[in-house]
Amino acid sequence: MTSIFQRLRTLDERTFDWLYQATSGLRKSRLAFWLSRSGDGPYYALFALFSAIAAIEGSMLFIQRALLAFAIEIPLFIGLKNILRRDRPWLRLKFKPVIKPADRFSFPSGHATAAFLFAALVIASFPVWAPLFYGWATLVAISRVALGVHYPSDVIAGAILGTSIAALVVAILQ
């Protein structure tokens, strides 16, 4: 069993190396930085505020879902990080990251979790936005690898976690 986990870790590290090299242009142009920043918390609140101000049909249900979903997501991903305690790539592979992350642990990615959670909630309330928001969430996740602060498995786990929390909340608040 240990050899399976070691193989998965090796695959994850090799995939990280390949993606990190392949995304050097995103780092040089600072696009990765801006994509990552677009996944920061205040922007979610701004979107909710604008949807309410514009009186878009479904915006109040969207806001209720978002409040419940983030109330579940934030302590859950922080708890998982502190239980699993996986070092970030730059700590394990000994290189200087492009940005300074908020903490030393990487699994799961909080940015990917929140971005996919938010995208799924937006899509449940405003389906016409599906391609835009899932595309954006994917770019946020990729930017975290490009910046050297997450392995691919961190952002994949975050995407699954965020989407799952959103699905749960949508089922609860219909």
TrEMBL record:
Its main location: membrane. Pfam families: PAP2 (PF01569). Gene3D superfamilies: Phosphatidic acid phosphatase type 2/haloperoxidase. InterPro entries: PAP2/HPO, PAP2/HPO_sf. Keywords: Cell membrane, Hydrolase, Membrane, Transmembrane, Transmembrane helix. One of its GO terms (cellular component) is plasma membrane. The lineage of its organism: Bacteria, Pseudomonadati, Pseudomonadota, Gammaproteobacteria, Alteromonadales. SMART domains: acidPPc. It is a multi-pass membrane protein. Its EC number is 3.6.1.27. This is undecaprenyl-diphosphate phosphatase. It catalyses: di-trans,octa-cis-undecaprenyl diphosphate + H2O = di-trans,octa-cis-undecaprenyl phosphate + phosphate + H(+). Residues 64-170 form the Phosphatidic acid phosphatase type 2/haloperoxidase domain. The chain crosses the membrane at residues 43-61, 67-84, 114-135, 155-173. It is an enzyme of class 3 (hydrolase). It is found in: Cell membrane. One of its GO terms (molecular function) is undecaprenyl-diphosphatase activity.
